[in-house]
Design goal:
Radius of gyration: 24 Å
Strand content: 15-25%
Structural class: alpha/beta
CATH class of the largest domain: Alpha Beta
CATH topology of the largest domain: Spore Coat Polysaccharide Biosynthesis Protein SpsA, Chain A
Shape: elongated
Distance between the termini: 41 Å
Oligomer: single chain
């Protein structure tokens, strides 16, 4: 990156895979905002192997085209972010479902010092037929609730694809997800690292493509959920396992001298079996949680886990 490239304030990054129909619309809107805001900026098309005229169209319209050989939504965005020259970066889809003429608040709050600026469709406006019913009322709300519960974030729309992020924040996050779960990874790691997040209402428009979207609702939804679970072994496995083991052990120890009556409850062989079951289940869940912790650590999902770091230090 040369000195002149370092001086850019904003990069608008658009992942692309065969989007020749809508690409002219979004690129023109992006340049329109750049001109209106009088900001030193670039428009980057991160191409993921288009076989139509997307690349030539983007170049003709003045966008900077990057070739991303590794397939996947996340890979395309990581390629764009890593090679962007802007201090601030705004991402959005190439199907014109997000309006690049409405980036003013993203720029505003990034300039104010927020690490990430998230669009929220659920607190904004959704055009008719722009979002499937199950995505609107089940998938996105459920995944957002789990993400907020596990990682302490306070957002309303974890799947919104229009976001702003500073270059410094991107470098801290060490994002690696190849597919659609990239959207969750960004927020999960931002929550872990306590980065500042600002959410702003936006409008989701019906996309202008004449083909089905790349998103697969059920498989991509499962990948999001699985990714969250890999990042939250303490919450999902370790603490429930400890609670189960403690309760089971108490039930066993209470009967060390035989059956007894506790209030109106008669503690006998049945409660002993329950205690033994809870203890064994607790140990099994704890072991599963530790396996997931180690797997997550080895795959660089997180590096600051106290238990894993203690094991690495003391078991060499």
């Amino acid at each position: 990156m040369n000195k002149m490239q370092q001086q850019k304030e904003l990069s608008i990054i658009i992942p692309c895979l065969n989007e020749e129909k809508t690409l002219p619309i979004v690129i023109k809107k992006a340049f329109s905002s750049i001109k209106r805001l009088k900001i030193d900026a670039e428009v980057i098309i991160s191409d993921n192997g288009s076989t139509d005229n997307s690349v030539s169209i983007a170049k003709e319209l003045g966008a900077r085209v990057l070739n991303c050989p590794r397939k996947g939504y996340g890979n395309a965005l990581i390629c764009g972010f890593s090679q962007a020259n802007g201090k601030y970066m705004i991402m959005g889809d190439a199907d014109d479902s997000y309006n690049f003429e409405e980036i003013d608040d993203f720029v505003k709050y990034l300039r104010q010092g927020y690490d990430i600026v998230m669009g929220t469709r659920l607190r904004g406006k959704i055009e008719k037929d722009a979002m499937p019913f199950l995505h609107h009322y089940l998938g996105t709300p459920v995944l957002t609730f789990i993400l907020n519960l596990f990682f302490g974030t306070k957002i309303s729309d974890c799947n919104c694809g229009m976001r702003g992020i500073t270059k410094n924040a991107f470098e801290k996050l060490n994002l690696t997800s190849a597919g659609m779960e990239f959207a969750s990874e960004m927020i999960i790691k931002a929550g872990i690292l306590k980065l500042s997040i600002k959410e702003i209402p936006i409008t989701l428009y019906k996309d202008k493509r004449n083909r089905p979207p790349h998103l697969n609702a059920w498989s991509d939804g499962w990948r999001h959920l699985k990714f969250m679970l890999l990042y939250a072994p303490n919450f999902v496995f370790i603490w429930p396992a400890i609670v189960s083991f403690i309760i089971g052990s108490i039930l066993l120890l209470l009967q060390i001298r035989g059956p007894f009556v506790f209030g109106n409850i008669y503690m006998d062989i049945h409660s002993m079996i329950l205690g033994l079951t809870l203890s064994v289940v607790g140990i099994s869940i704890f072991e599963m949680g530790m396996i997931i912790k180690l797997y997550s650590h080895l795959n660089n999902y997180y590096e600051q886990d106290k238990i894993v770091n203690w094991l690495k230090k003391n078991l060499h």
